Amino acid sequence: MDMLSLIASRHSYRGKYLPTPVPREHLAAIMQAGLQAPSGCNKQTTSLIGVDDPAVLEKLHAVIQPPAGNTAPAMICVLGKRIIAYRDKCYWIQDYAAAIENMLLAAVALGYQSCWYEGHVTDADRIGYQMQKMLGVPDDYELVCFLPIGVAAEPVTEKAKKPFEERAWFNHFPEEKNP
After folding, report:
1. Which of 119, 120, 134, 145 is the most exposed place for a label (fewest CB within 10 A)?
2. Does 77 fall in a domain?
3. For position 119, which CATH number holds?
4. What per-residue confidence (pLDDT) applies to 124?
5. Residue 164 and residue 174: Cα distance in Å, rounded?
6. Confidence label for 85 from pLDDT (cuts 50, 70 and 90)
7. For residue 118, what pLDDT is reported?
8. How crowded is residue 48: how many other Cβ atoms within 10 Å of its Cβ?
9. C-beta atoms surrounding 158 within 10 Å
10. pLDDT digit string (tens) for 87-125?
11. Burial degree of 108 (CB within 10 A; 0-12, 13-18, 19+)
12. What is the DSSP secondary structure assignment for residue 41, as one 8-state letter?
């Protein structure tokens, strides 16, 4: 599959997953794709924990409310570290966002589906913190997202995107049309 087709075929998958295990080499390849993402001033603020042990997955899913991705046979937990990159700027959000997108694309390229779950773990209930404690992550990191990884058990549905012309332009922002 060429890259543009791959990008067009990636969609957030929130359905059930088949119990088919994700081979460790596939999980590592997806994680490596994330680590290859650009990073502000090359600070490399994003780290990852791949989880494929059913007992660990069960413990993590026990705290994720509302439940999400709980039938996936693997998960990638995305960790960010707030490091000043340039003057007083920290690009950790951009860093982990780029890593996540790379991993979502790599997952689809290998025949898997996933979804970017961030709000589930970064809200005031601190689910991400509970997850990071279970995984032994030090407090100078923050678990900002998890990606369930697995083979879709249901059809992957595409959400409608606004037309190109409503969101992208050339040379200037379009003038408002007066009624």
Report:
1. 119
2. yes
3. 3.40.109.10
4. 87
5. 13
6. confident
7. 95
8. 20
9. 11
10. 889 999 999 999 999 999 999 999 999 999 999 898 888
11. buried
12. G
